[in-house]
Amino acid sequence: PLLINQLAAGEVVTRPSAVVKELLENAIDAYATNIEVHITQGGMGMIEVIDNGVGIHPDDMVMAVTRHATSKVADVAHLHGITTLGFRGEALAATAAVSRLTLISSHDDSGIGRQLQVAGILDDMPKLIPVVHHRGTTITVKDLYFNVPARRGNLKSIATEFGHIETMFREVALARADVALTLFHDNKKRLSLSVNTISNDNENYLPLSRLEQATGLALTEQAIEVAVDLSSLTQHPSISSHSTHVTNGYTDNAGAMQSARISGWLWPSCDTNHHLPKLIYVNGRLVKEALISNQLRQMAQSAQLAGMGYALYFELPTQWLNVNVHPSKQRIKISPLNNIMAHLSHAVRAKLRTLNP
Ligand code: ADP
Ligand code: MG
After folding, report:
1. Which of 80, 342, 237, 79 lies closest to 245, judged by CA?
2. Is the pLDDT assigned to residue 80 strictly greater than 60?
3. 336 found inside a domain
4. pTM for the complete prediction?
5. What residues contact residue 217 under an 8 Å CB cut-off, 6+ apart?
6. Does an H or E element contain 162, and which?
7. Residue from 24, 92, 137, 324 to probe ligand 1 pocket by mutation (most atoms less than 8 Å from CB)
8. What is the distance in angstroms between the CA of the first residue and the CA of the last residue of the chain?
9. Residue 292 phi/psi, 5° resolution?
10. String of DSSP letters for 76-111
């Protein structure tokens, strides 16, 4: 099991920022509204993620660090219905296989949690020690790759590794404005993103205030809002057989309401040196999808706005997605993509026409 875990670790735990990403996604999956990340030495000393999510029941703590024990994927068909960011049940096990990992979690308001430690190998009889802890989870990862010298040797400088962590942290912060996020490096606060409580009256998925905070750019002035209703596509044959149509979206197999829309912002610019964001999020996950970005580039070019920036948030029914295309989960397959792009293109071109009629 040690070897298998270390092999898996190579795929998931490629560098410190990959650990931070998985831990952040777990905290978000656990409905945390406040997440603190403490890093030392670019993540090579310590990575600690503290959340106020639902926590882990003592009976489930050992399972949480055991490979595939928690996989939410029961069968391949189920891959099309995933709503959580994590679903393979291997990130914690993989991290624990190549570090000294401490998991502390409390699932209630007793003020008491359980602590479990793993250093490369999980004990046959792992001990759960009661400790003081608020409801939520704290995961501390020390000495990454202490038992894999070749990987440790591949790590870059502290500044480079922390740079990767910071980039990834911003990407997560741009996915969810409803979560407060703070990042510390060597005890210094580096980024702090609050939750904007003022209601977002235009109902855009992500308020401009979070975009500005997370990117450090002034983005309000030139922003053009985009909103595309895709509910007409919920009649698409690939999903209509197993979903019930309702007024403004529809219910999935589990009965949850799902919306089909795109919202976000465009920043018109003809200056290609202008470093405007170019972001595409699908159901809270940053994706790199050449088909989408190429079409956006074409729309921009035909409006003489080659430097156009965009932050577009796709909220799509999970049946339309297959996120299991690549371990990084950044590649994604969207089923009625051509229809979606036709709607988006129509809306974007209409907005751009109002700029230079
Ligand atoms: P996955 O996210 O793919 O399920 P992970 O290895 O990342 O697998 O996590 C294993 C399990 O541990 C999760 O499914 C979840 O039940 C639990 N878990 C991990 N981190 C947290 C957290 N911060 N809060 C609550 N539960 C967590
Ligand atoms: Mg996970």
Report:
1. 237
2. no
3. yes
4. 0.87
5. 211, 275, 276, 277
6. helix 158-173
7. 92
8. 65
9. -70, -50
10. GGGGGG--SS--SS-HHHHHHHTSEEEEEEESSSSS
Whether 135 lines ligand 1, by a CB cut-off of 6 Å, is: no
**Ligand 2 centroid from CA 38, angstroms:** 18
Element of type H or E holding 118: strand 112-119
Residue with CA nearest ligand 1 atom 16: 64
Residue 191 and residue 169 in contact, taking contact as beta carbons nearer than 8 Å: yes
Q: Does the CB atom of residue 27 touch ligand 1 within 6 A?
A: yes
Same domain flag for 123 and 239: no
Among residues 168, 193, 218, the one where a domain terminates is 193
Does residue 86 have its Cβ closer than 6 Å to ligand 1? yes
User: Taking the mean position of all CA atoms in its chain, how far away is CA 329?
Assistant: 9
Domain of residue 104, CATH code: 3.30.565.10
Task: Indicate if ligand 1 lies below 6 Å from the C-beta of 8.
Answer: no
Q: Whose CA is nearest to atom 10 of ligand 1?
A: 64
Residue scoring higher pLDDT (87 or 159) = 159
Q: 66 C-alpha to center of ligand 1: Å? A: 10
ipTM above 0.90, yes or no: yes
As for how many domains the chain has, the answer is: 2
Interval between CA 64 and ligand 1 midpoint (Å): 6
The verdict on the CB of residue 62 being under 6 Å from ligand 1 is no
Distance between Cα 128 and ligand 2 center (Å): 21
Domain carrying residue 233: 208-355
Q: 273 pLDDT exceeds 70?
A: yes
Percent of the chain at pLDDT > 70 equals 81
The amino acid present at 241, given as its one-letter code, is S
Ligand 1 centroid – CA 90 distance (Å): 9
Q: How far is CA 158 from CA 17, 18, 81, in A?
A: 12, 15, 39
Calpha distance 185→136 (Å, rounded): 22
